[in-house]
Amino acid sequence: MLKDSGSGSLSKSKTHSSSNKRISSKDKRILKQIYFAEESYLTSSTSEGKINGDVKRRCKQIIKAIYLDEPETLRSYIDSGRRPLHIKEIQRRILEAIELNSLECLKVLCETYEMRPISRKKNADIELFYQWYGLASWPLNERPKETALHVLPSKSNSEKAMKVLDECGSKFVTDFLDVEDSHGSTPLLRAIKCNNIAVVKWLLRKKPNVNNINKRNVHDESPIYVAALNDHVNVIKEILETYSKPEELRSNLLEIMKNIDGELNINGHSILYPASLSGKSEVLNLIMKEKLWEDFLKQEKQFKTIDRNKWQEFFCNVCAAGCKDLAKIILLDDPDLVRGSNGEMSPLMRAVEANQQEIVQLFFDNIQDEDFLNVIKSCDKLNRNVFHYAVKNSKVLKDLLDKFRELSKDYEEDYGAINGMDNDDNTPIKLAALENLEESFEMLLNYATSEEDLFSANLIHTLKSKVLKKRLRSWKENDADAVATLLNGEHEKHQPFLEAAKAGNEDLIKFFLEQNANPLQVTHDRGETALHLVVLSGNLNVLKYLLKKKEFLEMINSTDEENISCAGYATQIGHAEILRFLHKKGAKMKSDKKTGRLNILDSAYGYFKWCENSIEELIAICTPQELKELFEDSYFGADHIMSKLIEEIPNVAKKIFDQCIYKKLEFTYSHRSPGEIKARKRVLYNFYPFKRKKRDGKLEAIKSMVDFKRDSLLDHSLVVQFLNQKMNSPSIRKWFILNFLLYVMFLLTLTTYGVIQRHDVHNLKSPEMIVLSFFILTICAFHFIKEILQIVINQTNYMHDFENYIEWVMYTCAVIYVVPVGNTKADAQIACGATALFLGWINFSLFLKRFSLLGIYIIAAKRVFLTVCKVLPLVLLFVLAFSLSLSLLMPLDEGFNNMPISLLTTFVMMTGELDYRDTFLASGPLHFLQKILLVLFILMISITIMNLLTGLAVGDANEIMERSKEEKRIHKAKLVMTMESSLHNFFLIPRPNEIDDCEVDSLADEEMQPSWWLRQWKKFYDDEVDEPAVKPMANEEKNDYGKQFDELSEKIEKTNELVKQMLEKIPPGGKGRRRNLAV
C-alpha cells in the first residue's frame, strides 16, 4: 500500500487538480503503479484470470478518483454503473482511501457503506484484503490480509481519519472493531504495536470484546501482552479505565491479566512477567500503585516450587527494570533469591548492569553484611562478579566500593574480587580502561591489589600514558626496588618497557628509559629484544629513536630464541622501509655460526607470500655480490629458496634473475690481426639462484617453474642460458647421445626386421634374423631397466608423462613381435609389430621436439592436431548423417554395403576423394535424393567443414608459434631435470658438474674456434637468448649505451687504419721494429 507523505515512501502531491486539469508527473508515475496493483487484484479475484474491459476501466477511474481525493468524481462512478458496488468492494475502497490519505473520498465511501445492508451470518460479507501498493519488497504470501482499521494506526493522519469514521462510518467501525486479520491480529493489537495511543484510546472507547484483549495471533502476541512487554503504560492505563465498570467486566480483565499466557491451568505467567522483561518500571509501578499486584505476584510465586529458575529469573528482571516496591516485597518474602543460581547473573548483577541505583541501595538495606559480601564475591558463568558489570555506571560502582570497603575484613582475600579476572582475562579495571571510563578507572585504581598489575600487557596497550606515568612515579616513591625490578624486565608477569615497544608507543618508551629501564631485557617466552618488538609494531620513528642510542645499536644483530634477528623480523612481516633502515645501520643479513643467527631469507621461509615488499627492498639495497652471498649462505640452499619464491612471488623471482646478468664492454687486441683493436661485449650470467645445498640431482627452481607454469621465468635469459649450459655439460651430452643412438639403432633394427619379415627376404630362423631379434631384445631389456629405475627415482612425475606410456607399449609390442622366433608370425604378432613400428616413429618425432632447431615446428603441429580434435566430434555427426543416408540409397556399392565401410568411405570423401564417376555413376542413373545429398555433401563437408578445420588449425599462427615456444622450453626443462636426476642416481655414470656462472663473449667463437661437433650440438640444442637487461645499477647509462658504443667503434676503426698505414710504411728489413710496433 502507498505510505503517507510522512512515511517517506510513495506519496501523492500535496495539491491535486480535478480530473479535467493537468496531473503532475509524480502523480502519473504513482498512478501507473496503482493501476498495475489494481489489475493484479482484479486478475487474482477471477477464476479464469480474465477481466471485462468495462469493469477494468471503471475500477481504474474509481482508484484514480480516490488517489486524487475527488469525492464528486468518485460518487459519479459509484452511481453510474449498471449495478451498485458490492459491499465487499466498498470495504476494499475504504481501506484504499485510508491508505491513500483521501479523507473526502473516505466520507463518500462510508456514507455508501451505511446505506448497504450487511449479512452477519458467519461474517459472510466481511472480507480481508492484501495491501497492494508500495510493498514490492514484501512477498505477497507473507503479508497479512487486513481491514481498513488495521491500516489506520500506521497513518500519520489517523486522527483526522478517525473523525471521519466517527461522523460517517460508525456502522463500519462497529462491524470491524473485533475482526482479526489473516494472522490473527486485531485492530487494537496493530495500534499497540504501532504505539499509536490516539488510535488505541479511540478503539478502546468503542469497547471491543474484553476477551480479545489477550487474544493471541500466529506470532503469539496479544494486545495486553505487547503493551506490557514494551512498557506502554498509557495503553495499560487506558485498558484499566475502559473495563473498570461494570464489576464483572473488570473481574474478567483482571483474570486475563493474572494469567496473561492464556493458559487455563496455574502454570501461566501474570502481566508482571512481560512488564519485567521490558527493562522499564512504569507498568510495574502502575500495577503497584493500583494495588493490583497481590494476585499477580501470587501467580508468579507458583514457580517457587514448580521451577525455581523461572522464579529467580523473574526477580532478576524486576531488579533490572527498577521497580523498587515490587523488588522489596519479593526480597523480604524470599531472601535466598539474592544469591543467584546455576552460574547465572545474580539479581544484584542485573540491577548494577541496568544502573538501578535504588535497587542496589535496597540490597544494602535488606541483606545481612556477611551475605552481602558473599553476593559481591560470587561470579556468573563468565566468571564475572558485580564489579565487572558496575564499571559502566560510576555512581553505582562508587556505592559498591564504599560498601565493600566497609564490610571487608581480610584485605588481600576480599579485595581479590575487585581485581578478579573473567574468562576473557578481563579485570574490572581493564574493562574500564578498554571502554575509556576514566571515572570508574580512577576509583578502581585505588583498590588494585598490586601496583605492577597496572603495567600488565593489556593495560599498557589501552591506558593513557599520563595515567601510567603518574602511577609509576607514585609507586617509585614508595617502593623503588619493586619499580626497578619491573623496569629491568625481571618481573615474572609484566615487562612494561617491552610491551610499550610492542605497541610502538614512543612516549612510554622514552619515559621508561628516563626511569632507567634496562634496554637489554628480553621477553620471557621468546627472548625478543625491544628492537624485535618495535619492528613487529611497524613504527619506523620509534626504531630510529632507539638506534640513535649506542646500547640499542650494539644489539642490532641480537636474536630471539629461534635465532632470528630484527632484520629477519622485518623481512618476515614485509616491512620494507624498516629493513632498508636496518641495513643502513649495519644490520647483518647473513647467518653467523658463532651466535647461531639465521640468514634473513631463512627467517622469512614459509612467509614469502606476506614478505614480497621486504624481499623486493632487499634486492634494491643489496649489491649483486651481496645478494649472491646471501642466497649461497641460506641453510636451505639457494635453489630451494628460489623454488619457493617462484611458487609464491614470481615477480620477485624475476627481479632476482635480472640481478644475475651483467654487461661488460672491453677493448682488446685482435688475435688474428696484430695491432688491431676490437670491441667485445661480455655478458656474465651468475647461476647462484640454481645452486643446490645437496647434490641430489634435483633442480627445484626449474621444477617450480614447470609445475606452476611460470612461462615468463622459463623465457628469462638467465634460465635459458642455464639450461643451455646444462645441456652442453659433457656428462649430460654423452648420456643423451648414448640414449639417442640406442633408440635410433633400436628403431632402425626393428624397421629392418619388419621389412624383411613382410617381404620374406630371409627365413625368420636364419642367423641374420636371429641376430636382429637378439639385438632388438637386448635394447628392449636395457630400456625396461631404465624405465623401472626412472619410476623408482621420479615416481609421480614419471606417471604424469604420457610419452612414458607410449614407450612401455612400444617396447612390449616389439618383444611380442620378435619372440618367439618361428617360420611365420601370428596375426597378433603382426598387429604388435605394426603398433611397435607406428609408436616408435611417432615417439621419435615427439623426441625431436627437444631439439631447438626442430622442436618448435613439431610442437606447433601437435597443437594444430589437438585443435582439430576438439571440433572432430561435431564433424563426425555430419559424417554419420551422410554415411547412413548413402548406405540406404546405395546398398550395392562396395563402399556403402555395411556401416563401418560406409563411415570410412564418407570420411575419405570428406578429404576431397569423391570418386564421382566410380562411386555415383557406375551403378546407373542417380536417384534424386542422391543428387541432393551429393550437393549438400560438397557444400557442407568439402567446402564449409574443411575450411572451418583449416581456419581453426592456422587461424592464429603467431599465437600458436608463441605457445609452441613456451611448450618447447617446458619440454627442454623437463629433459634437463630428467637427465640430471638420472645421472645422479645411476651408478657407474659420472655426475654433471655444478655450473656456478657463465660468460658469453661476442668474440669467443671467432677466437677459440670450437669443434664442428660442438657447433652442431649447440645449433640443435641451444635456445636463442634474448638480449639480457643491463643490471639496474647501470640504468642511467642505458639510453646512451648504443650511441657510446657506435662512437667508440668508429674511433677503433680509425685507429686500426692508422696502424695498418704505419705498418705498410716500415721497410721489409725492419722486422724488429714492425714487431715492436705491433706489440
UniProtKB/TrEMBL annotation:
What molecular function terms (GO) are annotated for this protein? monoatomic ion channel activity
Per the record, membrane topology reads:
Multi-pass membrane protein
Q: Which residues form a coiled coil?
A: 1038-1065
| Main localisation | membrane
Protein name, as recorded: Transient receptor potential cation channel subfamily A member 1-like
Q: Subcellular location, in the record's words?
A: Membrane
Where do the segments described as Disordered lie?
Answer: 1-24
What residue intervals traverse the membrane?
Answer: 735-756, 768-785, 828-848, 868-890, 932-955
What InterPro entries has UniProt attached to this entry?
A: Ankyrin_rpt (IPR002110), Ankyrin_rpt-contain_sf (IPR036770), Ion_trans_dom (IPR005821), TRP_cation_channel (IPR052076)
**This protein's UniProt keywords:** ANK repeat, Coiled coil, Glycoprotein, Ion channel, Ion transport, Membrane, Receptor, Repeat, Sensory transduction, Transmembrane, Transmembrane helix, Transport
What cellular component GO annotations does this protein have?
A: transmembrane transporter complex
State the species of origin. Paramuricea clavata (Red gorgonian)
Family matches, as SUPFAM superfamilies: Ankyrin repeat (SSF48403)
Composition-biased stretches, type Low complexity, lie in: 1-21
